[in-house]
Amino acid sequence: RQGINAEYMGDVPFTPPMIDLSSAYKSSGVVSFSSDGTKIANAAGVRLCIRDAQSLEVVKIHTCADKIGNLEWSSDSEHVLCTLAGRSTIQIFGAHSFGQVGRIDEGIGGLVTANWLPDGQHIATTSEFQLWMTIWNLDDERRSKQLRNPKFTDSHQLCMSCTRDGSFMAVVERKDCKDFIVIIDLATIEMAKRWEAEAGSDIQQMNWSPDGSVLCCTNGSLSYRVLLYAPDGGLLSTISPEDCVLGVKCVAWSQDSRLIALGSLDGKVRLVSLLNWQPFATLSHAHKVTSEQAIVFQEEEYSDDPQGTVLCKYVVCPASYTLHGGATGAGEKVTRLGVDRAAFSHNGQFLATHDATTPNAVWIWNVCTVSLEAVVVQMKSVKWISWDPCHSRLGIATGAQRFFLWTPGGCTCVDTVTPDFCVHHFQWNVGGTALVLEDKTAFCLAFPAWNEA
């Protein structure tokens, strides 16, 4: 159990949480909370281990036919999908059953991706060379469906998105050098709608709004073009600012489906309101931030004991602060551009962004006032950011031996369980009461105890 240094904002003291950390457990870099947050699954070579998320007691251990490359929980938290590295094979295991409950072999077509659909009864797989996508019915193989020519993005991801309630799935089909949007009814696994995207479209991202009423499609990096469609194929709006040449890099919806944040390669975030379907504010990531604009938290290391133990704290910069670009590794130059991450808090009050040209900084904006709230400057490049799903708390990972948290009251940092444990990624559970911290070969759980008073 660790106490963390407190920072102060104005005259209001920030009481940092006490955090319980579990022991570190071996993993091959694949670990995930179940959808309901009660269980946690991790891969260690060919073994799939399922644990209770509170006690960390082992519930089940399954052995796969080969090394596990990826795993994913079903929406009902009853089954785990394991993709085997080096094989075109998927094995499905039950959280409480013995042995595998299902197996899919794609054969000579190869396997690129495999994902659960929201109903927990179907799995979508894609073959190599963009030949087809198959939707497998686990109860009856004869009811499985195939879609030819699914489109992959430039980052080799399937251009697909499902509504949050599991009603529809949208897929981009590439045919005759044109993009077609296909809407599939997940209740019947039948095509509900198909239409050709606007002329000249090169769709690279698709994102349903949380309420499933709008489908946002963005072009590639060479052209700024955002298409907003209704589920029936009606074009609601086309967003193409005249002052922007380069394209959109990331998209984020607010939880109430009223706002879209579009992060682009020019280092700006444009906020779009669904009241008029057009941008109403532009957020720029200037390299110089003054104390009048926002509070700048800077991570620092220090030692205050004779043994030379290195500790970490945040200091508030009193005057203007200049952000510098950093290299991604030894001897490397910064070649990445644009806003590559954007995420709204659970209530839409805050927006967190990351600009690749200043890789050590996280920008936090107040959406209500459309102004910069804070900038968190880390010693290392930021690898991952994610909001608590139930509170305004932002987690930050940098690949250091520490984990970082920002709240409207201040910043905290916590050392990991062992000096050689580095946090490269993390996940919140569904209630925001626990996190799984991930190193490349191990993981541990963190349980923050917040003083809500």
What's the rounded overall pLDDT mean? 89
Structure classification: mainly beta
Main sheet attributes: strand count, strand direction, barrel closure: 6 strands, mixed
Task: Provide the gyration radius in Å.
Answer: 23 Å
Low-confidence stretches: 1-13, 327-332
End-to-end Cα distance: 20 Å
Q: Which sequence of strands runs across the widest sheet?
A: 31-30-36-35-34-33
Strand fraction: over 45%
Q: Quick one: how many beta strands? A: 43
* CA-based shape: globular
Mind explaining what this structure looks like?
By secondary structure, the chain is an all-beta fold. The protein is built from no helices and 43 strands. The strands form eleven sheets. The protein has a six-stranded mixed sheet, with no helix packed on it. Strands 3, 4, 41, 42 and 43 form a five-stranded antiparallel sheet that branches. A four-stranded antiparallel sheet has the order 5-6-7-8, with no helix packed on it. Strand 1 and strand 2 (about 10-15) form a beta hairpin. The protein is globular and about 70 Å long.
In short:
This protein has 453 residues and is mostly beta strands. 0% of the residues lie in helices and 49% in strands. The protein contains no helices and 43 strands.
Task: Summarize the helices and strands and which ones pair or pack.
Elements lengths: L7 E2 L2 E2 L4 E4 L3 E2 L3 E4 L5 E6 L2 E6 L5 E6 L4 E6 L5 E6 L4 E6 L5 E6 L7 E4 L5 E5 L5 E6 L7 E4 L11 E3 L5 E8 L2 E8 L4 E7 L8 E4 L6 E4 L7 E4 L5 E5 L8 E6 L5 E6 L3 E6 L4 E7 L3 E2 L5 E8 L8 E6 L4 E2 L16 E6 L5 E6 L5 E6 L4 E7 L6 E4 L6 E4 L4 E6 L2 E6 L9 E4 L6 E4 L3 E8 L4
